[in-house]
# Entry
Amino acid sequence: MAKAIRRGGTRTGKKSAIQEEHSKRMGLKIILVLTLPVLIFIITGISATLGSADLSIWDAYSAILHRIFPEYFYTTWLSDICVWHLRLPRIAWAITAGFGLGISGAAMQAILRNPLASPFTLGISSGAAFGVSLAIVLNLGFFGGMWLIIGNAFIFAMLCSGLILGLASIRGATSEIMILCGIAMNYIFGAASSLFKYFASDQELREMSFWGMGDLGAFSWEELRLVVVLIAIGSFVLLRKAWDLNVMTVGDETAKSLGVESNRIRAIVMTASSLLIAGIVAFTGIIGFIGLVGPHMARMVIGADHRFLLPASGLLGGVILLGADTVGRTIIAPIILPVGSVTSMLGVPFFLYLIMKRRREYW
Amino acid sequence: MVMIKLETIDIVFSYDGNSGPPILDDVSIQLAPSRILGIVGPNGSGKSTLLKCIDRIIKPDHGSVLLDRREIMKMGRMEIAKKIGYVQQTISRGFPTSVFDTVLMGRRPHLSWRSDEDDEEKIWEVLRLLDIEDLALKYFGELSGGQQQKVLIARALAQEAEVILLDEPTSNLDIMRQFEVMDIIRDLVNKKLVSAIIAIHDLNLASRYSDKIIMMKRGKIMSAGEPSYVLTADNIASVYGVEAVIRKQSEAPYIIPVGPIKTTMRK
Ligand SMILES: Nc1ncnc2c1ncn2[C@@H]1O[C@H](COP(=O)(O)OP(=O)(O)OP(=O)(O)O)[C@@H](O)[C@H]1O
Ligand SMILES: [Mg+2]
# Structure
């Protein structure tokens, strides 16, 4: 290394320049990640003003903050009801679901080493959809009442990823095998759901297709709490594996030589993200796109270091879903458009624009 | 008695579903501390496979790999990674990653969640050593083949392993950079008491930089020893089917390939 010092020494000017540039970029990344919560806060305020009762931005924020800092913010009974009972639950669902879909999308892309992967690549959504058809058409499920559909969606989503993991572990859980097993699951559960549709009544069909478009408004704070816990646990696991995910994107052999048992990590990450996604999908139905595109957008600005990429993808997912839902709520109010469709309709053109603008390998 | 840093004992390996003779057939090698072992042999002779067995990327069917007299199969993946570094022959592509981040991956075995100043300083040191500091913020996929090769070597150096396995580290480098990289490895071996195993096609580089050479053919070691013992016209003729003239310059033999031997073409 003596040589290194000597060489470095002759080019001190250059050295500090590029090192400085590097730390500047690191700082910028951190700032970018930190702006996302601010953005969420702003959209939350805007979103909370929108609806049948007229509230100003200030009314909305003070109603929100009143419950947190009652000494500093005052609000009226009407705004409080409007914001906390009608609008915030929906907003909170959007942020939570967007976060979960975004972060698990980033993790899935890393373990499958595939830019096309999303939380739904591995057939999790078709597993859930099958569970839902079972509940709607045959009234068959593990729980009763309101938990019939939710329970089925969750359990079949987990069953589906369990099957994939099981199958893949027979052959060694490489990314290719996992993807192929996932596609197989997609087809088989998809086919089974179609069969149900074939025999379903019009009313049942409507219910099924409604579920498939994604909806954020159906549940309240109590159910959200459950999902938040799931997401917190799942995200914690994913974040702890951030380093391993970094290493795994360059291939299993290199990962092994750097001390990362990639098949094991793949199984862990897969389990954690399935849990998280199943939790979301069970309540909201299928909201595609975010899990695919949130991570890509985050990667464009943040880079491939998962210590930053994972939280950024989650936060960006929250921003996108909240933004899309806000638009979907207002564009032809009082009709609320299904959030899954709105997200894709708005997000895809924007995403294509970003891709076309870039000149790098994928974007 | 000679000190041994790493040895393999009678390694036998076949890829799944491979009938016929094994890919590695009773391979035993010994590597002393602070030495460079060169592996030469024709395409498909098993050089890369041997390196992978040593790093336990694949598991041999029989035989053992001992590192400091400890069986490597009984060590954890992370423990092995702290001691053995590996530079792959083929470059696999992942998501676009900067050179700095790529090299930082080499610190993985030593890191908790955060990378601290020390780790980063080490990366800069290694980048400077390989003279690729200017590339630090570029995307790995946007480098030339030779530059990529240097980055991967940098990553292995950042790993600070005691044994480094290099699979064709110079195959994409121009003649100047070939010497540069081999000199760096030589330096590291001499000064930091690292040991290296290098699979390499260029017989003259092998001859010049290796302390010992093993010559492989179809998964078997045909000859092993000092470069001047292994790199003989006879050995080259029987392993490669190439006629060569050997010049003795200083200690290392210098090989001039003349052409394929037509009469001994195998059927
Ligand atoms: N993943 C694999 N599955 C099956 N067979 C393999 C695999 N990798 C290598 N082989 C076979 O094992 C043999 C040895 O391959 P290896 O890569 O070790 O050769 P090598 O000496 O490194 O060759 P080269 O000089 O071309 O790099 C070859 O016959 C090859 O076809
Ligand atoms: Mg090889």
About this structure: Residues 193 and 231 of chain B are 26 Å apart (CA to CA).
